[in-house]
Write a structure and sequence with these properties.
- The chain is an alpha/beta fold and about 375 residues long.
- It folds into 2 domains: about 130 residues, Enolase-like, domain 1 (2-Layer Sandwich), CATH 3.30.390; about 230 residues, TIM Barrel (Alpha-Beta Barrel), CATH 3.20.20.120.
- It is about 35% helix and about 20% strand.
- It contains 12 helices and 18 strands.
- An 8-stranded parallel beta sheet has the order 7-8-9-10-11-12-13-14.
- Strand 8, helix 6 and strand 9 form a beta-alpha-beta unit.
- Helix 1 crosses helix 3 and helix 2 packs antiparallel against helix 3.
- The longest helix has 19 residues.
- It starts with a strand and ends with a strand.
- The mean pLDDT is about 95.
- Bound molecules: magnesium ion (MG).
- Magnesium ion (MG) binds next to loops.
């Protein structure tokens, strides 16, 4: 089997809540997501999706996905898409860095491997652990009482895990955390995710002010060293996200005891193959994971579900169902949330079929 064509379409994904706000006044109201298709000489096509959280979150942007595939695509024509190790080696040799560009291609090739073998991706990635995957809800940064109201509403949808977008004014963030924790049950799990937004002294003030609360702190500051200093000044369980953008950074943070859990985003790490490598190390090393992506629609949600469902439950800190945050369905067959949980599909591959009626014209076509 050989790759004969790689193509991409874009789709706009408006947010159900209107807009999504996080640290530093950043916000998005319509996501620009890219569908990546990998076509083979036997007529089989696999699909992936890449959706950066705007151009100002990670070093990634939507046009960059398409431009990168134009650069990378010609190097991959003729490869066997089922040989994921060879594919990733070739991608890394042809284009230095830019993991998010490679992510959609890698996911599409996993989809092909599944479709060819008749197996769901989660079976190929290690097997299905447990019946279902527990989800968290990200709560956009707003006034404390608005965030508390939203958490109450999402609790009625079955969510028991929440990730608060903080990283703004530290005094207001303290109020946000207190307002939300006050309305949760002790079994509910709360993460205060600053998304790099606090300076070191601000972060240390916040963690001291909420020391009495049951709470996780995620990526308080921009640099790894600042985060490590905050980690050493708090006894809250600690999660790193933005800084863990490679296997090397993961190993460094593990050696420094810099985190209790880690946030692995598929496109941040370059696709399912690279994410699985770190996922498996986390399981061996006792580090729980938030398994997700930067953003996305139905195809991203399906990829997350296969990654999460093939991870032992004790190490699944949480995942999220991005397709429920947006108003456009970009593929049939994706997991749908039920009472705060989702499941990976039993169908071959990712188990999805793109809804081409919602996509724009083909923007990339390499053959
Ligand atoms: Mg995070």
């Amino acid at each position: 089997m050989r790759i004969t064509r790689i193509f991409a379409h874009h789709v706009e994904l408006p947010l159900r809540e209107g807009s999504y706000h996080w640290s530093g006044g950043k916000s998005v109201s319509v996501f620009d997501s890219t569908l990546v298709g990998v076509e083979t000489d036997c007529g089989l096509i696999g699909y992936g999706e890449v959706c950066p959280l705007g151009p100002f979150y990670l070093p990634a942007y939507a046009e960059g996905v398409r431009a990168g595939i134009k650069e990378l695509g010609p190097h991959l024509i003729g490869l066997d898409p089922r040989e994921l190790g060879v594919l990733n080696e070739r991608m890394d040799a042809a284009l230095k860095g830019h993991p998010y560009v490679k992510s959609g291609i890698d996911i599409a090739c996993w989809d092909i491997l599944g479709r060819t073998t008749g197996l769901p991706v989660c079976t190929l990635m290690g097997g299905r652990f447990g019946e279902k995957i527990r989800l968290y809800r990200a709560i956009s940064q707003e006034a404390p009482e608005v965030m508390a109201r939203k958490v109450a509403a999402y609790k009625t949808d079955g969510y028991t895990r929440f990730q608060l977008k903080v990283g703004g004014d530290p005094d207001l963030d303290i109020e946000r955390i207190r307002a939300v924790r006050a309305m949760l049950e002790s079994s509910d799990r709360l993460v205060a995710d600053a998304n790099t937004g606090w300076t070191q002294h601000e972060a240390i003030r916040v963690v001291r002010a909420v020391r009495d609360l049951d709470l996780y702190i995620e990526q308080p500051c921009l640099t790894y060293e600042e985060c490590l200093a905050v980690r050493q000044a708090t006894d809250h369980p600690f999660i790193l996200d933005e800084n863990i953008d490679s296997l090397g950074m993961f190993l460094r943070a593990k050696a420094d005891l810099a985190m209790d859990a880690v946030n692995l985003k598929i496109s941040k790490l370059g696709g399912l193959t690279r994410t699985r490598q770190i996922r498996d190390l986390c399981v061996s090393q006792g580090i729980a994971m938030t398994l997700e992506d930067s953003w996305g629609g139905d195809i991203t949600t399906a990829a997350i579900a296969h990654l999460a469902h093939s991870t032992p439950e004790a190490y699944r800190f949480t995942s999220t169902d991005f397709n429920s945050y947006v108003t456009v369905c970009n593929a049939d067959g994706a997991p749908q949330r039920e009472e705060g949980y989702m499941q990976a599909s039993d169908a071959a591959g990712l188990g999805i079929a793109p809804r081409f009626d919602v996509y724009g014209p083909r923007l990339v076509d390499i053959s």
